Amino acid sequence: MPWSNQNGGGGPWGGGGNNQGPWGQGPNRPRGGGGKGGPPDLEDIIRRGQDQLRNIVPGGFNGGVVALVGMILVVFWLFQCIYIVQPDERGVELRFGNPKEEISAPGLHFHLWPMETVEIVKVTMQQQNIGAASTSSSSSSGLMLSGDQNILNVQFSVFFTVSDPKAYLFNVENPAETLQQVAESAMREVVGRRPAQDAFRDNRQPIETEVANIVQGTMDRYRAGISIGAVTIQDVAPPREVADAFEEVQRADQDKQRLVEEANQYANQKLGQARGDAAQIREAAAAYKNRVVKEAEGEAQRFASIHEQYAKAPDVTRTRLFLETMEQVLKNSKKVVIDEKQGVVPYLPLNEIGKQAQQGG
């Protein structure tokens, strides 16, 4: 007991013996005594736990600790030896730092740790954002000089997959950073050969295709194990310092384009109207030509028929022509009938009376 005197004397401060306390009193027991009705003693609980542990652990308590530690180490080793590869991943096992030939497919795998380790690589489509809005390492990232000496802030993304996990892990020290630098360099090269207007809205697709081809060729030369899926330009804007002036130039260019379109529209309208008028005049001229030609042909045919009849009966034809001519000359003139014997004969203008009657009615 902690307060008992092993030599039969008092406590450490001279207390009485016989299991007395340090001030001459007996040890304080839990209320209810140590009988069946009271709670168990703490020392009894500890003692019983030690006995049970000796029975469970082979070799006793001292040897059981070693066995327990050994079991824990074995479980830890097994936990380190087993790894899982997800469906969108591939694993590359290393033996003493050298990669094995086979690639671990998705599923549960086992390797001898620590002699062997594993590197997990994601092989599905990944996106690398490049530009001032997506990278905080450099404030000038994305700033490029176009072919017409304009400064542009180009933000774009590179979509890629890992085609060779082993090459991706061991041929390039930092594949993600290398890809970013190569893509940024390729975009600067392509934008530097073109005017700023191409990057803004006119020819983005050719720029994206050319940059993707350059990046793929460079990564293939590095044997980085990366396959470029696409390059997309997210946004193109001038730097904040010159944004107002650049927008003013853009507005002027838009006004120019608008005025040119309006002029072209007006020219097309006038040209269409002139072409319509010209076509109408040509049709009228053709109709007049046909009418005059037909009239001339009709007069010629009538003259030919008259000449034919005149050749057959000259007197009759001459008289008929005289009468027809006089009819044409005198039909609109005032008429006075003179008889050789009676002189002037009264003439009743029936035609004029009929016209007056119609007008009066």
Automatic annotation (TrEMBL):
The keyword Hydrolase applies. It is a single-pass membrane protein. PANTHER family: MODULATOR OF FTSH PROTEASE HFLK (PTHR43327:SF2), STOMATIN-LIKE PROTEIN 2, MITOCHONDRIAL (PTHR43327). It comes from the Bacteria. Residues 80-250 form the Band domain. It is found in: Membrane. It comes from Rhizobium mesoamericanum STM3625. Residues 1-44 are annotated as: Disordered. CDD domains: SPFH_HflK (cd03404). Residues 7-19 have a biased composition (Gly residues). GO terms for biological process: proteolysis. This is Protein HflK.
